[in-house]
Amino acid sequence: MTEERTEFSGLWKQIFYSIVVAAAKFDVGFTIGWTAVLPKIQADNTTSLAVPDAHVPWIVSMPGIAGVVMTLATMPGMEALGPRKFLFIILLPAGIPWLVQAFTPYLSLLYLGRVVSCFIYIALGPVTAVLVAEISEPRIRGLLLSAEEITVAIAQMAIYIMAHSLPWDVATAACAAPMILVAALTFFVPESPYWLIRRGQKDAALESLKKLRSPKQDVNLELQEISANVQGTSQPSIWDQIKQLARPQNYRPVLLLAAVFILRELGGQHVVFSYTVYMFQKAGVGLDAFVCTILVGVVRLVFTVVSAAVVDRVGRRPLLIATSFVCGAAEVVGAVFLLVDVPGSSWVPLAAVLVFVSSYGLGIGPIPWALLGELIPTPVRSIGSSVCIMNFSIFTFVTSFIFSYLLEIGLGFAFVFFASAHALLTLLFCAFLPETRGRSLSDLEDIFKSTSGN
Questions:
Q1: Are residues 22 and 151 in contact, defined by beta-carbon separation less than 8 angstroms?
Q2: Rounded distance between C-alpha atoms, residue 256 and residue 377, angstroms
Q3: In angstroms, rounded to a whole number, what is the distance separating the alpha carbons of residues 71 and 74?
Q4: CA-based Rg of the chain, rounded to a whole angstrom?
Q5: DSSP 8-state assignment for residue 267
Q6: Cβ contact 414:407 at 8 Å
Q7: CB 386 within 8 A of CB 71
Q8: What is the model's pLDDT at position 5?
Q9: What are 285-295's pLDDT values in tens digits?
């Protein structure tokens, strides 16, 4: 009974600390979903702030622009300071850009606030995934990594509801409130034992594991496994990591995840959530565009929660294959009914988008970020994650910027392009993605050593 209590206590500690880390991604959900307030700003005759149509693509695609710049500093900064300390520093000013965007009368300051919030959004992507992966045990790591995307979905749904129900400036200012509490709680999260071992702080790593696993739990075996795994993998320079990338077991998972993020963005996930109001207005759906947007937020949240419940039972690989295929199929159906005018079918594009969103929330939304913390090997974790996030940012910008012009050409043609990207993504998962469920980070680093393995 005593051993069960000790184990239970250790699990709950991991769950609590991981939820605190995941809560940082409220800022990510707010940043993605905030563009739903843009139509209200444009329609507001009482404000001196004017957002011309020509500026909308730039504002929506700002995460991609910021990502290209911020990615170069995020992983080296995280490696120099430690994931937990780096996360804390990022979160300290996270509320300020929301207040700037809420109360400025100038478009230039709106851009400034948007850029800063996007810098924070990009920095949070890899650091939270790495920290959760390195403080959690393999048996619950999938569930805890899914908490990040649940947080994003909650925040996104919240900003959609606020955009519909509140004045745009109040909705924007409200995004600042949760970040203060999250920053305070992050201060108490233990540092990554993997990072501490890389820094030669073995005693500190032992204490961190005791805080994470329970003081009475024997963590010496886990400490030895971590030490053996990261022995000689200190990351003093980018050049050392580039040399490590020449090894097949290091560059293979990086190339795989970079391709996953590129195809996922070409599949239209960012534009579906960022241009939601504009998209439903263009599609001529019978319901109010803001109501449709709220439905998108609710469906994403529900299926992201379902994903967290089943990911460690079903596995990452089958979920990714199935959900990528369904996302592409939903886009094909939506494209057909947008390109062919069928009387009484105005509800079909909404249904197609909701199927896309449900499948996205179930698999290809949360799991690639979890794989970022699981598959990138420790010796190249900084530069490998940077490569993946850089590609994610570039193609987020490309798809977000050109989508407004695709809307003018025809939403159906855009959906056809997105569906083709999902077809390629499905084939990629089938051919190259290994299953990571229940495996330690040390085991996962050995998967890509074999030239004939899965």
A1: yes
A2: 13
A3: 5
A4: 22
A5: T
A6: yes
A7: yes
A8: 55
A9: 778 889 999 99
Instruction: Give, to the nearest 10 degrees, the angle between helix 107-135 and helix 367-375.
Output: 60
Cβ(257)–Cβ(375) under 8 Å?
A: yes
Amino acid identity for residue 432 in this structure: F
Tokens for 109, please give them: 């300051």
- Is the model's pLDDT at 191 over the cut of 50? yes
- Residue range 356-376: average pLDDT? 86
Task: Give me the pLDDT at residue 234, please.
Answer: 52
Which of the residue ranges 120-134, 175-189, 313-327, 350-364 would you say has the lowest mean pLDDT? 120-134
Tokens of 23: 């809560």
Virtual torsion, Cα 419, 424, 429, 433, nearest 10 deg: -140
Which of 118-127, 138-147, 294-303, 429-438 shows the lowest per-residue confidence on average (mean pLDDT)?
138-147
Tokens standing for 434?
């290994």
d(CA 107, CA 249): 48
pLDDT digits (tens, 9 = 90+) for 227-245: 776 665 555 466 777 787 8
CB 362 within 8 A of CB 305: no
Which of 4-13, 93-102, 205-214 is predicted with the least confidence, judged by mean pLDDT?
4-13
Tokens of 237: 């320079």
Spatial contact of 350 and 38, defined as CB atoms under 8 Å apart: no
The structure tokens listed for 81 are 């300071």
Instruction: Check if the beta carbon of residue 21 is closer than 8 Å to that of residue 189.
Output: yes
Residue 290, both tokens: 């803001």
pLDDT value at position 143?
Answer: 75
With H, G, I as helix, E, B as strand and everything else as coil, classify residue 145: helix
Closest to 283 in 3D by CA, of 157, 413, 416, 407: 407
Element (DSSP H or E) covering residue 282? helix 276-283
Residue 134 burial class via C-beta count within 10 angstroms: exposed 0-12, middle 13-18, buried 19 and up: buried
Contact 297, 153 (CB under 8 A): yes
Question: Residue 404 and residue 97: Cα distance in Å, rounded?
Answer: 25
Q: What are the structure tokens assigned to 321, written together?
A: 């294959």
Q: What are the residue ranges of helices labelled H in 214-247?
A: 220-230, 238-244
Query: Which residues, including other chains, have CB under 8 Å from residue 408's CB and lie 6 or more apart?
Result: none
For the chain, first and last CA: distance in Å? Answer: 41
User: Which of these, 107, 125, 25, lies nearest to 66 by C-alpha position?
Assistant: 125
pTM comes to 0.82
Tokens of 119: 């810098």
Mean pLDDT in residue range 301-327 = 90
Q: Within its chain, how far is the Cα of 277 from the centroid?
A: 21
Q: Mean pLDDT highest for which of 116-130, 165-179, 278-292, 390-404?
A: 165-179
